[in-house]
Amino acid sequence: MNLVIPDTSACRASLEVATAFHSPALLNHSVRAYLWAAHYARRKGIHFDAELLYVAAMLHDLGLAEAFDNHSLPFEEAGGHVAWVFGAGAGWPVERRRRAAEVIVRHMWDEVDVRDDPEGHLLELSTAMDISGRDTDAIPGDLREEVLSRYPRLGLAEEFVACFESQAARKPGSLAASFVRSGFAARVAANPLDH
Predict the structure, then answer these.
(1) In whole angstroms, what is the distance from residue 56 CA to residue 36 CA?
(2) E strand or H helix at 118, and its extent?
(3) Rounded distance between C-alpha atoms, residue 135 and residue 23, angstroms
(4) Is the CB of residue 51 less than 8 Å from the CB of residue 11?
(5) Global pTM?
(6) For residues 74, 75, 76 and 79, what is the CA-based torsion angle, rounded to 10 degrees?
(7) Which of 55, 74, 112, 169 has most Cβ atoms within 10 angstroms of its Cβ?
(8) What is the tens place of the pLDDT at every residue in 33-87?
(9) For residues 106, 109, 111 and 114, what is the CA-based torsion angle, rounded to 10 degrees?
(10) 126 HSE (CA, 13 A, CB side)
(11) Would you say 100 and 55 are in contact if contact means Cβ atoms under 8 Å apart?
(12) pLDDT exceeding 90 applies to what percent of the chain?
C-alpha cells in the first residue's frame, strides 16, 4: 500500500484514544476512512493537512461511544467537542482545534465543498464510502483488497446501524435520525465493501 499514515505525536495519540474507546469494528472503520480519503485526495490532486484529517478520522465517531454519547447533542457535535479538547491537550492552537471539530461535524453533511474545507470534504466522502458504499468504484481493487485485509470490517454494518437507530430514537432531530428515516439500514446492507 502506497498510502502512509502520518506519524506525529497527535496522530499516535488519536489512534490511542480511538483504540481505547471504539469497538474493533469502529476502530477499523476510522482507519479505513483516513485511507480511502488519502487515496482519493492523491488521485484527484486535492491538497490536505494529513495530520488534521487523520486525527479527525480517528475521533469522528467518538460521540457514538458510550463514554462520550451526549444525551442531547448529535453524535457528530459531541465528537467535535471531544476533538477540540483533544487538540488542546495536543497543544494545538485554538484555530486548529476549531478546524478538527468542524471537520468532524461536517462529515455528516450531504456534501462539503472541497474548496472551502478539503479535510471535511474528504472525511464526508470517505465515511460515506465505508458505511453506505457511496462511490466505492473510486477505490481501486488492489487497494480495496489490501485495506480490507489489514483493517477488516468485523460486522461494522450491523453495529453501525444499531448505533444510528439508537441515536435516532433518543435524538429525533439529529442527522442520524434523518438518515434512519431515509432508508439508511438498506443502504448500509447493500454496501459493496461487505460483499
Answers:
(1) 14
(2) helix 118-132
(3) 25
(4) yes
(5) 0.96
(6) 130
(7) 55
(8) 999 999 999 999 999 999 999 999 999 999 999 999 999 999 999 999 999 999 9
(9) 0
(10) 28
(11) yes
(12) 96
